[in-house]
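Notes continue from the previous slide.

Worked example: a multi-chain complex. Inputs as given:
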Amino acid sequence: DAEITQSPRHKITETGRQVTLACHQTWNHNNMFWYRQDLGHGLRLIHYSYGVQDTNKGEVSDGYSVSRSNTEDLPLTLESAASSQTSVYFCASSDQGNTEAFFGQGTRLTVV
Amino acid sequence: RKEVEQDPGPFNVPEGATVAFNCTYSNSASQSFFWYRQDCRKEPKLLMSVYSSGNEDGRFTAQLNRASQYISLLIRDSKLSDSATYLCVVNAGGKLIFGQGTELSVKP
């Protein structure tokens, strides 16, 4: 069955370190998204991509970057982790057009 | 103003009650609409899509009013298992924007 997976599921890192969260989907979807979820804010869009070599900034992109070198993967990099980036991160993918999105299980990141 | 707004709740209702959630969106170019369900900060999962003509899936009814930029979800005969957070989602040009979510707690 097609799926979308995130790794790691949990990570603790130190302030200032570079961190990369992986997202891999086997749906062959063109669209991929990264969100963060914090209490009181719901899911906020960080970056998104509509296809290979395409990346776009979302609502809360400062301090984050993504790259899309193939259809299956959209890794999210925190260039220099900050305590304010402690959050739960969700990756999602969707087919072209106005279709539903499927989510990974999430990565709980703690920056100490 | 947020692009998608929901009443965060919580809504505390007894089993068997009917409960309604509302959502408004600001981008008139939005093209498709969904309700997702999220349990205990796990990944959101699609509950149902929302169509202009309204759609029903068992105890759940979703409606869209494009003129008022308003989406609703009605849950009839609430079950304990309906306790979750319900997320209103708007798709504008392929970008999915989430509301803050409405928490529902169904009590025995």
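Summary box: The mean pLDDT of chain A is 94. Chain A touches chain B through 28 residues (CB under 8 Å).
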